[in-house]
Amino acid sequence: MNKNNNKKVAYVGLFATLVMVGAFIKIPTPVIPFTLQFLFVCLAGLLLGSKMGFLSVFIYAALGFAGLPVFTGGGGIAYVLQPTFGYIIGFIMCAFLAGFISERLKPNMINYTLSAVCGLLLLHIIGIPYYYFISHNIIENNLTFKQIFLFCFIYTFPFDFILSLISARLALRLKPFINR
Q: In sequence order, which residues have a C-beta less than 8 Å from that of residue 86 and are 6 or more positions away?
């Protein structure tokens, strides 16, 4: 393995770990806990690119799926029956999309923010329907789709948008160090 590959492996591991840590920095909310995972997922995509960002978040998800308690509510194969598991899938795709878009645009605050917000929207496009499906077909809670959308998107979007701005700013500052 050459020096460049060693660096990529280290960064992938670092961001998998940061996403794990982000799961435990949380603010409880009525439906889904608000965590810093999205910040680290965005940074993985923006700094590592689509493939390595995807891989880092995929490794995080695989570790949780294998039974390590790295998700906000634990881990294990049964976690797929948790309403919030759709957000884990969404994190993987968010990192990929944020990286994919940012790789094709000039690195600046607007483009990185756009990349992060597109990833955020994809995260919710995957997470919200999954939450609704599991809620109504597995755990049988009585929240309507409108209520889930309100709690999972409308209430969280302002703070997630701020995290998009923070991830864009951090990516601009850190990208030169990652590329060395």
A: 126, 127, 128, 129, 130, 131, 133, 134
For 103, the domain range is 3-178
List the CATH number of the domain containing 115: 1.10.1760.20
Helix (H) or strand (E) holding 34: strand 34-35
pLDDT, tens digit only, all 180 positions of the chain:
677 889 999 999 999 999 999 999 988 777 677 899 999 999 999 999 999 999 999 999 999 999 999 998 899 999 999 999 999 999 999 999 999 999 999 999 999 999 999 999 999 999 999 999 999 998 888 889 999 999 999 999 999 999 999 999 999 999 999 977
**DSSP output for 141-172:** ----HHHHHIIIIITTHHHHHHHHHHHHHHHH
Give all strands (DSSP E) within the chain, no chain letters.
26-27, 34-35
Domain count of the fold of the chain:
1
Please report where in the chains the tokens 């493939």 appear, as a residue: 51
The pTM assigned to this predicted structure is 0.94
